[in-house]
Amino acid sequence: MDIPPDRPPSRQESPVPATLDAIDRKILKELQDDGRMTNVELARRVGISAPPCLRRVRALEEAGYIKGYRALLDEKMLGYEVVVFAFVHLSSQAESDLSAFEAFVRAQPLVRECWMLSGEIDFVLKCVAPDLKTFQAFVEKLTAGPNVRNVKTSLTLRQSKDAAMVPM
Description:
The structure is a single chain. By secondary structure, the protein is an alpha+beta fold. The chain is built from 5 helices and 4 strands. The protein has a 4-stranded antiparallel beta sheet with strand order 2-3-1-4, with helices on one face. Helix 1 packs across helix 2 (39-46) and helix 2 (39-46) packs across helix 3 (50-63). The chain is elongated and about 55 Å long. 13% of the residues are buried.
C-alpha cells in the first residue's frame, strides 16, 4: 500500500516507534532475558500474536533500541582469569587527541569497555587478561599509547554484580 506523500505515516505504518508502549517494553525485557526464544514464544509471553510481534521487534531493531544479539561468554572458563580497571590520564583533551586514544583502545583486544569520564581521570578501561604477565605487557603498550600521561590500575578481587541488562 502506497502512502500519499502529503500524509505522514501512522503509528502502525511507521517502522520506528515514536515512544515505547507497554508491549514494546515487555518485548525488550523478554529479549534481554532470553534473546534466543522464537518469535512465537515471545508473542505468547507479551500477549500478542506472532505477526505483530515480529513487526514490533523489527521496528525496535530499526529504531536502534535493539543493537544486536550475542551470547554472553564466561571469561574465566575461556582462560581470562585477570580483570583489571585501568585509569588513564591523557596529556591533552583536544578532540583529535581524544579520538586518537579511542581509536588506539578500540584496537586492543584485552580492553572490554572504555568510558570517557569527567574529572581528573580521562578514561577508565575494563580489561581482561589470561594472567598478570600478559596484562603487564598490555599496560606497557597502553602507557606508550597516544597522548597518555599516566596509567593507574586496580586489580579486581571478586565480582559482586554482573548485570549486562538495562533495567526495564
